[in-house]
Amino acid sequence: MPLVLLAHLGLPLLAWLITRAPEGGLAGLLRAAYPVLLLPGLYSAIDVLNGFGAVVVHDAPIQALELALTGGQPARDWWRTAPSAFWSWLFHAVYFSYYVVVPLPLIIFLATGRRAAVERYLTGVIATFLFCYLIYLLWPVAGPYYEFARPSGPFIANGPAQLVYAALAKGSSYGAAFPSSHVAATVAATIGAWLAMPRLGQLLAIPTALLAVGVVYCQMHYVIDSLAGVIVGITIPILATTLDRRMIARG
After folding, report:
1. Which of 233, 221, 212 is nearest to 62 (CA)?
2. Which among 12, 223, 241, 250 has a CA at the least distance from the CA of 122?
3. Cα–Cα distance between 62 and 73 in angstroms, integer?
């Protein structure tokens, strides 16, 4: 805990140092992207604040809503009733597309000199992340990864699945299922890219759609988690862009 507190106390110092970095080159890239780079660490802190699994979770109402909407528990039953080596490989692989989709627009915007697009993009994506993190602390949901017996056997006998479960074993935060920040952030990144470069947004929409489905098929999230992630990922960037344009018009 002392190390965690020390790391968080160092964040304002890091932010101040970043503002003094040059705007060009690698320093400029880090100056623009450092909030996104800090988010994985902040995500891990959720597990600390939620007591490493000691917090009371609210999976029961989510599962009840899931049953009412779908007639079952797709996150638990889908891969069992329709196991597929191909879809398991693809959906587990696309789970990692999150780590490409989110930073890619930022890199492209910086490389093409779209500074205004960078600011709007970061505002939408970071606000999306922080909204999800706030929900995790106020109303934690463990998710099907913790609530149900985990996938096993031939279904996970592939490289992407093994990598996903190894990553979850080391970096998953308890209580961080609703809404899916993986889905929300990927959708927000796609929307942010679409607003500035429509063709880039169209390209990113493909892995984003696969991810939204895959997190359910691979038993990472409830359907409700994924749907909520889509809604959050669309709403927050559009609101952020609208507010930004109104402020510019008034200023």
Report:
1. 221
2. 241
3. 10
- Phi then psi for 141, rounded to 5 degrees? -130, 125
DSSP-derived letter for residue 22 is: -
Residue 106, class by beta-carbon neighbours within 10 Å (0-12 exposed, 13-18 middle, 19+ buried)?
A: buried
- For 166-214, write each residue's pLDDT tens digit: 888 777 788 899 999 999 999 999 999 999 999 999 999 999 999 999 9
| Most trustworthy range by pLDDT among 25-29, 95-99, 226-230 | 226-230
CA-closest candidate to residue 144, choices 237, 232, 83, 79: 79
What is the distance between the alpha carbons of residues 185 and 138, in angstroms, rounded to a whole number? 19
Indicate if the pLDDT at residue 247 is higher than 70: no
Q: What is the mean pLDDT of the chain?
A: 88
Query: 214, 199 in Cβ contact below 8 A?
Result: no
Q: What are the residues whose beta carbons fall under 8 Å from the beta carbon of 56, sequence distance 6 or more? A: 140
Is residue 105 within 8 Å of residue 200, measured between CB atoms? Answer: yes
Residues 6+ apart with CB under 8 A from 21: 27, 28, 30, 31
Query: Residue length, the chain?
Result: 251
Does the bond joining 179 to the residue before it have cis omega, within 30 degrees of 0?
yes
Local confidence band at 249 (pLDDT 50, 70, 90 cut-offs): low
DSSP one-letter code for 26: H
